[in-house]
Each structure stands twice: as C-alpha cells, then as structure tokens.
Amino acid sequence: MESFVETALGFIWSIFPLIIMLGVLVFVHELGHFAFAKWLGVKVMKFSIGFGPRIVGWTRGETEYVLSWIPLGGYVKMLGENPGEEIVPEDQGRTLSTRPFLQKALIVFAGPGMNLALPVLLFMALYFTGYPDVTTYVGSVERDSVAAEAGIAPGERIVAIDGTPVTWWEDLSEALLASVGKPLRLEIEGADGRREVTVVPKSETVKTLLGDEGEIGAIGITPLYEAATAAVSRTDSPAYEAGLRMSDQIKAVDGRPLTHHPMLGASLQKARGPISIAVERDGKPMDFTLPALGTPEELDGLESAALMERAGFEDPQLFIRNVERHSPAEEAGLLEGDRLVSIDGEALENWEAFTERVIESNGKSLAVTVRRAGVDMTVTVAPGLRFNRDPLAKESKTYYVGVASLARYVPGKVEPRVVRNPIESLAQSVEETWRMCDLVVVGMWKLLTGAVRLDNIGGPIQIGVVAAKAADEGLVTFVRMMAFISINLGILNLLPIPILDGGHLLFFAIEGLKRGPISLRKKELAQQVGLTMLILLIGVAFYNDIARSWNQIVGFLKDVGTGLM
Fold first, then answer.
1. CATH number of the domain at 238-314, out of 2.30.42.10, 3.30.980.10, 1.10.3720.10, 3.20.20.70?
2. Residues belonging to the active site
C-alpha cells in the first residue's frame, strides 16, 4: 500500500505543472472574452475555468463563477448564445448577436488576443528580474576552422567586435552573419589577458528547426561544451581513494576554473605535487586532494590522456548517467554507472556509435556488454519503439533503450540579462514573442502541407510531459514554455474553423459582407463540420500521446497494481 501511495503522489506531483500552466492559460483566454464582453455591455451568465463537475462556484452580480475539475479548457456563457433562449425585456440589446460587428469581433478576438499578449508580459517580467542568456564565452572550437587558425580557444570570451562591445551570443551570431566573407576584428579575453584576432566568417547553410534552409556566418565555434564530469570507476585509482565519485562535476584544479572537460587533462599536466580538486556533488561544493601523480621528470614526459588514466579519470561518454523507468534498459538490468563496452561483440568508441546501433536494430535484441565494478557482463536488450522527438526527422519513429550518457553537454556561461528600461524591455519582449509566433505559424503551415508529419501533434499528455520537464529545469524555462504554449493556443483559436474563435470571426465577416445573418441551419452544419475536425484532431493528439508514453503508462499501471497488493 505504501508503494501505491508513493506512486500516486508522484503522479500528482508530475501533473501539477500541467495544471498550473493550463489553468493560467485558460484563465487568461477566458478573461479576455469576459472583460471585453462586460466592457461593451454584453451580459455574461457564467465564467467557467475547466469542464465537468465543479469544485467550487459562486455568484456575484449577474454572473456565476465556476472552477471545475477538468482543466482542459473553459468558457464564458453570454446572453442569447443558445437559439430560442428566453430574453427578458430589460436585457434586450445585451446579447452578443445584437452588438455591432466591430464589438462582436473584439469580444471574440480578445480571448486568443490575450494569449498572444501574455508572452509579452512574461518576457518583460523575465527581462526585469534578469533573463538568463548565453554569453560570448567559447565552448568548443572545431579543428581546422577559422577560429582554430586564429588561435581562439575554449573558455575564452569574445568581448568586442570591430571595437564594439558584445555580451550575448545572439549578438555575436548576427555580427558573424553580417560579415560573411569580410574581415572581422575580434577582441578576445582569456587567462593571459586580452588580445585581438582577425577572422573571415564563412557562409554555411543549416537546417532550421522547421526544416527550412538558413544561412549562418561561421568561424567554427559554439557556446556548447562538454562539462567536466568525473567518471571514476576504478576503486584502486588515486581519484577514487581521494574521495571523488562518479558524476561529480569538477569545477577547478589547483584553483584554476574548469569550464569544459578537455581542460581537465591540461590542468593535470600543469600540476606538480598534490593536486586540489574542487567539485560539486548534488549541488554541494566539496574539495579533495589527489597525491602527486609522479615526479616532475615523469610528468614532463606524459600526455594528458596518460595522466588522466593514471589519476583514474575516464572518458565519461560511455558511462550511463541514468536509466529511464520502465524502459528496455531497466528491464534488461542496466544500471547507473555501468560502462558500455560493446554491442554484439563490436567494441564501442563513443556514445554516438552506441545510439546508431540501437536505432539501426529495428527492434532486434542486442547483446550489450557493460563493465560494472571492474567486471564485464553481457545483457540482452530489446530496443523499444517510440516517436522521434525531432519533428522533422525523416522517420518519425525510432528505437531506444532508455539510457543517457554521463557526458553532459551544456550551454556556455549563462548570465542574467537585465533590462529595466520599460520601452527597451517591451521592444525586446515583442520581438521575442513575434519570433515564437513566426515559428508556430510556419510549423502549422508545414503540418497542413504535409512537410511535418501528423505523428508530431501532441495532446494533454505531451503538454504535461513538457510542462513537468520545464518545471524541473527551473522557473525561467517553465515561463518560456508557458509563453510558447500560450502562443500556440492563441493562433490555433484564430484558425477559421467553425466552433473555434476564428470560426466565429469568419461568420461575423460573412454576415457583414452580405449585410444579413447566416441562417441557423447553415451555422449548425458548419459547426458540426468544425466539431468533427476538432474531434479528429483531438483523437490524433491522444493517439500520439499514448503511443509516445505507452511504456510509461504500462509501468505506472504496474506500479499501481503492485502497490495495491
């Protein structure tokens, strides 16, 4: 029974972000309809958040306010919406249908309009409090690239372009694009001070998120880097004996900060005598000391890879960081900390080779050899089938086993981007919202034209998964995701489909052009068509949600069944 309670509480906690997100978005949407209807003199009978049995309700003035159990929508009931509804003489003229065209359009548009305005307010709040943004610290440098030839190294920061100070990676990207084929003077700040280098950005064509081709100015740098994660599995190694453990995040060696994993070997090369290692474990800072790895003469003749091995630091790429619950990997007995060795007898060199073999398996069982506590063991894993998270993948379904690499790739240094000037904050928030709107509109168009598969439509379960992950990553990510879903909701409701707000606006426009009302029969037929389309869309979304989450659903039901025993 205790297991059942834990499972139930875990489920409730996992859907809590979804309830908060949808509750806010539905409230904002219905508040738009409600506020404009009240302002323009239309009688509002009921203001409801949610559907189904009500949790609580009260009446104030002429309006009943209701909060119901199913938080997947809401509605504002206005006088005269139902055909044949009796209207007392004093309320004549207070129905939506008797309002002038512009007033009716404003009331209907106000719902999705509020959903489109909400992101602007959310972004302004983020900018005011400090919007985390990626700075111009270099995370990685490609071999034989323009940046490598100029001597730019990971961990350095680009502080100015042609004499103009630059702080954010987005501004750097725009400057590189604007200077393709032209010399660009970069001021670099590193451990040895500041210096200037000249680069000539090259034009590169890349695929955007929605599959379009876009041009970027490239010099071979990214803000993405591999964090310095300790992979310490040998219990007889100096690192283990000093107290370092698997997954420790190494922050500094002998007082020198580490921004990415390749710096670890170079830092060990500089060390002479005992080595102080500063790490972060479960969010807590800790310090350890490694004994000297050899005499100065020995150390001078060793490469960084040899020093890493001598200290007991292994490549984190092939170590398993975590195993998904109810996944094929969990069923096969793979554990966190296992080191992948081979698949079907073929040695693995990196994580990409492992994922490729899994995807190419087509569900056929694989013999996966792992090293656990110094002992090699082989387990049989049958990859599962699930939807690819990339909406533009040629194959919308892929095979997986449910493990993640210990090597963590994270954005470059993030700093708060504070914009307290309200005019500047508003301008940047509108620009950010417009960028998201463009992404949503293009995405919907590609969905309608078949460029994006129907498999990628998500429903409440998928929104819940996204909301939960966003909440886990912090308030800023959650707020950004809320803004993005709000834009989706606003634009979706403006589509000219009967039963949606866009359908009502279309009816109003037609009635205005023909200078007369559309017959009740035609409206009913159009609404039936719209309702059918909406039900089909909801059906596809639910099917996709269940297909994506089938293993998790089955696992949850197993947990519930076990807890009830």
1. 2.30.42.10
2. 30
- Phi, psi dihedral angles at 78 (to 5 degrees): -105, 155
What CATH homologous superfamily does 318-405 map to? PDZ domain (2.30.42.10)
Q: Which fold has domain 140-222?
A: Pdz3 Domain (2.30.42)
Identify the three-state secondary structure at position 325.
Answer: coil
- The angle at the Cα of 355, spanning 354 to 358, to the nearest 5 degrees, equals 90
Segment among 143-157, 182-196, 294-308, 430-444 with least mean pLDDT:
294-308
Task: Give the span between the Cα atoms of 116 and 486, in whole angstroms.
Answer: 7
Asked if 159 and 137 touch (Cβ cutoff 8 Å), the reply is no
Give Cα separations from 87 to 97, 140, 517 (angstroms). Answer: 12, 70, 19
pTM of the prediction?
0.71
Beta partners for 209?
none
The answer to whether residues 310 and 383 touch, using CB atoms and an 8 Å cutoff, is: no
The amino acid that residue 140 corresponds to is S
Residue 29 in tokens: 């949407």
524 has pLDDT over 80? no
